[in-house]
Description:
Elements: H1 6-16, H2 21-26, H3 29-38, H4 42-61
Amino acid sequence: MSEKSRTVTFLLAFFLGMFGIHRFYAGKNASGAIQLILSISIIGTIVSSFWVLADWIFILAGEFTDGENKKIVKW
Length: 75
Protein backbone atom coordinates (compact mmCIF):
# COMPACT_ATOMS: atom_id res chain seq x y z
CA MET A 1 0.00 0.00 0.00
CA SER A 2 1.35 3.40 -0.98
CA GLU A 3 1.81 6.32 1.39
CA LYS A 4 0.35 8.67 -1.25
CA SER A 5 -3.15 10.05 -0.77
CA ARG A 6 -5.91 9.00 -3.15
CA THR A 7 -7.69 12.31 -2.50
CA VAL A 8 -4.66 14.37 -3.51
CA THR A 9 -4.04 12.13 -6.51
CA PHE A 10 -7.63 12.49 -7.68
CA LEU A 11 -7.74 16.26 -7.17
CA LEU A 12 -4.48 16.70 -9.09
CA ALA A 13 -5.84 14.47 -11.87
CA PHE A 14 -9.12 16.38 -11.92
CA PHE A 15 -7.65 19.87 -12.10
CA LEU A 16 -4.23 19.29 -13.74
CA GLY A 17 -4.62 15.83 -15.23
CA MET A 18 -4.06 16.97 -18.81
CA PHE A 19 -0.52 17.90 -17.82
CA GLY A 20 0.20 14.64 -15.96
CA ILE A 21 0.79 16.36 -12.60
CA HIS A 22 -0.96 13.54 -10.71
CA ARG A 23 1.50 11.08 -12.26
CA PHE A 24 4.46 13.16 -11.09
CA TYR A 25 2.91 13.18 -7.58
CA ALA A 26 2.55 9.39 -7.70
CA GLY A 27 6.19 8.96 -8.74
CA LYS A 28 5.44 7.94 -12.33
CA ASN A 29 7.77 10.55 -13.79
CA ALA A 30 8.23 9.00 -17.25
CA SER A 31 4.51 8.73 -18.02
CA GLY A 32 3.94 12.15 -16.41
CA ALA A 33 6.52 13.66 -18.78
CA ILE A 34 4.89 11.94 -21.76
CA GLN A 35 1.48 13.28 -20.75
CA LEU A 36 2.96 16.76 -20.27
CA ILE A 37 4.55 16.68 -23.73
CA LEU A 38 1.32 15.37 -25.29
CA SER A 39 -0.62 18.30 -23.84
CA ILE A 40 1.28 20.70 -26.12
CA SER A 41 -0.47 19.61 -29.35
CA ILE A 42 -4.15 19.32 -30.27
CA ILE A 43 -3.94 15.62 -31.10
CA GLY A 44 -1.92 14.99 -27.95
CA THR A 45 -4.51 16.81 -25.87
CA ILE A 46 -7.21 14.50 -27.20
CA VAL A 47 -5.11 11.44 -26.38
CA SER A 48 -4.25 12.86 -22.97
CA SER A 49 -7.92 13.54 -22.18
CA PHE A 50 -8.80 9.87 -22.66
CA TRP A 51 -5.75 8.88 -20.65
CA VAL A 52 -6.71 11.10 -17.70
CA LEU A 53 -10.30 9.79 -17.85
CA ALA A 54 -8.95 6.25 -17.45
CA ASP A 55 -6.75 7.47 -14.58
CA TRP A 56 -9.80 8.96 -12.82
CA ILE A 57 -11.55 5.60 -13.00
CA PHE A 58 -8.49 3.75 -11.68
CA ILE A 59 -8.01 6.28 -8.87
CA LEU A 60 -11.65 6.11 -7.77
CA ALA A 61 -11.60 2.30 -7.92
CA GLY A 62 -8.43 2.18 -5.80
CA GLU A 63 -6.43 0.51 -8.56
CA PHE A 64 -4.05 3.38 -9.37
CA THR A 65 -0.45 2.63 -8.41
CA ASP A 66 2.54 4.78 -7.51
CA GLY A 67 6.03 4.67 -8.99
CA GLU A 68 6.90 1.64 -6.86
CA ASN A 69 3.81 -0.24 -8.12
CA LYS A 70 2.04 0.07 -4.74
CA LYS A 71 -1.70 0.78 -4.87
CA ILE A 72 -2.79 4.24 -3.75
CA VAL A 73 -5.80 3.33 -1.63
CA LYS A 74 -6.02 5.51 1.47
CA TRP A 75 -8.10 8.65 1.16
